[in-house]
């Protein structure tokens, strides 16, 4: 039942992403490169979170759909740029050659730029087309814009780049991940809530929920890099170590890290209790994130 | 008198850009890198065009100021990414070392990303803070977003990259520049007009004006690359040829190119006649662009 609902949401996102990226213009190569990375097999976690928090508050998920897709476009841009030779220099992502390996560095940089910009194009047009909801959409866009900028993803990536082959303190590592990964997960949940017309109290509770699962998500990522199955991960196990990346497993060890993931998720789920039955899907999704294998 | 008015507008933009970029947060290096390129001595042509077209229609230029600055942030991002080793591989821009020469490639890519994103942050916050003008601001933002994406700057840059060391037809060269440079000049003029509450007829006329000066601007750039003074240009004369770039001077020769700049500008100025006395500044600005030395 949960899996079915999850698949339903993922398919909604998939279809809308195809609609957005079905662009038959010149120069074709840039649209091809953008599609390559967007359709390289992502789990659509962020868009699903966005749709789910909208639904949780009784909102119309159709109105959250363009917002959810804009988030995925921005997330994909950040992956393309992270993989570049000047950054992490990754050859594989989700088991496939990275964007610059297929299209070259110049096009990969521009495909990333194009996806970031397209995310905003989608958001702005959505607001223009729905004047009755413009304030909700602008609040959602503001949330996403802050998370995508230097106070979010970009700031986190700068710290990541600067700290390679360095031992970090717990606070430094947390700062990095709260920015690099946590911020957009938080924005996904809050943006969906804004679309549903959330009160500031509801935003506050959902933001806290999102922070906890975002943190659990990152620790789980670090664990999978040590004990995951390469085939399912789509990349080499141990790649963090190879790249000189310091992780939560380095600080706490495997066992304690696994306990933390469970505890953070349980605390996150507790916050959802106030929303009653409607929170069922988001609760199951939170547990699903613990059990994931990639 | 014209020069004074121009300086006034440039100073307004300068002050607002400083306000926007006066960010004292971690990681400091990313904000420093962003400021480095934004304050590397640009002429602020696009923001001035935006303020001027707003003023032309009797709008409040204070309301156009954040929009004008967002355009300059986005323009600066495009320059940083254009200069990267994977793109034009330029060491100098406006007589100073390019961003990646000072901060390294990774930070330069991220500083570009940060400026593009910051442009949207500024636009979205401006709309949220001025609910009475949200529709005008959203229309301006939509104009800018289209010009900055694959149908504008990014598409033009892709063609530029793909066509190095290739002879282009007039149509191909025009396509490239209309996207790479023309689109954002057009968006600057139209965005300012939208902020003033322009009618669709006014937008239509100003768009035509902007296309003509945008085209003249690019031909003038190509001419300066052949006969400019290096000190004033801030880069080597003949750098287009060195980089295997095909230009309008290649197609038409110097004399005909210079005639075209004058004719395009005269036609552009004629369009402004319908706006009466209020168009005086924009007319003088158009002539100023012909006479520029950098």
UniProtKB/TrEMBL annotation, chains A, B:
<dbReference type="GO" id="GO:0016114">
    <property type="term" value="P:terpenoid biosynthetic process"/>
</dbReference>
<keyword id="KW-0414">Isoprene biosynthesis</keyword>
<dbReference type="Pfam" id="PF00348">
    <property type="entry name" value="polyprenyl_synt"/>
</dbReference>
<keyword id="KW-0808">Transferase</keyword>
<dbReference type="InterPro" id="IPR008949">
    <property type="entry name" value="Isoprenoid_synthase_dom_sf"/>
</dbReference>
<protein>
    <recommendedName>
        <fullName>Farnesyl diphosphate synthase</fullName>
        <ecNumber>2.5.1.10</ecNumber>
    </recommendedName>
</protein>
<dbReference type="GO" id="GO:0005737">
    <property type="term" value="C:cytoplasm"/>
</dbReference>
<dbReference type="InterPro" id="IPR053378">
    <property type="entry name" value="Prenyl_diphosphate_synthase"/>
</dbReference>
<keyword id="KW-0460">Magnesium</keyword>
<dbReference type="GO" id="GO:0046872">
    <property type="term" value="F:metal ion binding"/>
</dbReference>
<dbReference type="GO" id="GO:0004337">
    <property type="term" value="F:(2E,6E)-farnesyl diphosphate synthase activity"/>
</dbReference>
<dbReference type="InterPro" id="IPR000092">
    <property type="entry name" value="Polyprenyl_synt"/>
</dbReference>
<dbReference type="InterPro" id="IPR033749">
    <property type="entry name" value="Polyprenyl_synt_CS"/>
</dbReference>
<keyword id="KW-0479">Metal-binding</keyword>
<comment type="similarity">
    <text>Belongs to the FPP/GGPP synthase family.</text>
</comment>
């Amino acid at each position: 039942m949960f899996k079915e609902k999850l698949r339903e949401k993922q398919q909604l996102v998939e279809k809308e992403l195809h609609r957005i990226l079905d662009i038959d213009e010149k120069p074709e190569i840039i649209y091809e490169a953008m599609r390559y990375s967007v359709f390289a097999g992502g789990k659509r976690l962020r868009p699903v979170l966005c749709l789910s928090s909208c639904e949780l508050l009784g909102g119309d998920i159709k109105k959250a759909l363009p917002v959810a897709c804009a988030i995925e476009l921005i997330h994909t841009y950040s992956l393309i740029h992270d993989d570049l030779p000047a950054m992490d220099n990754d050859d594989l992502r989700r088991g496939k050659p990275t964007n610059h390996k297929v299209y070259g560095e110049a096009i990969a940089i521009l495909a990333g730029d194009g996806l970031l910009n397209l995310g905003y194009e989608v958001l702005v047009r959505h607001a223009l087309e729905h004047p009755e909801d413009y304030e909700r959409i602008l609040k959602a866009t503001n949330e996403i814009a802050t998370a995508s900028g230097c106070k979010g993803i970009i700031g986190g990536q700068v710290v990541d780049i600067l700290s390679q082959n360095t031992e970090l303190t717990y606070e430094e590592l947390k700062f990095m991940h709260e920015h690099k990964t946590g911020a957009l997960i938080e924005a996904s949940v809050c943006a969906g809530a804004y679309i549903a017309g959330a009160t500031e109290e509801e935003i506050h509770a959902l933001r806290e929920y999102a922070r906890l699962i975002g943190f659990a998500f990152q620790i789980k990522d670090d664990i999978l890099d040590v004990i995951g199955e390469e085939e399912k991960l789509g990349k080499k196990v141990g790649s963090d170590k190879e790249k000189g990346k310091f992780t939560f497993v380095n600080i706490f060890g495997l066992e304690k890290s696994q306990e933390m993931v469970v505890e953070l998720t349980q605390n996150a789920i507790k916050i959802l209790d106030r929303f009653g039955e409607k929170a069922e899907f988001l609760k199951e999704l939170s547990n699903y994130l613990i059990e994931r294998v990639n």
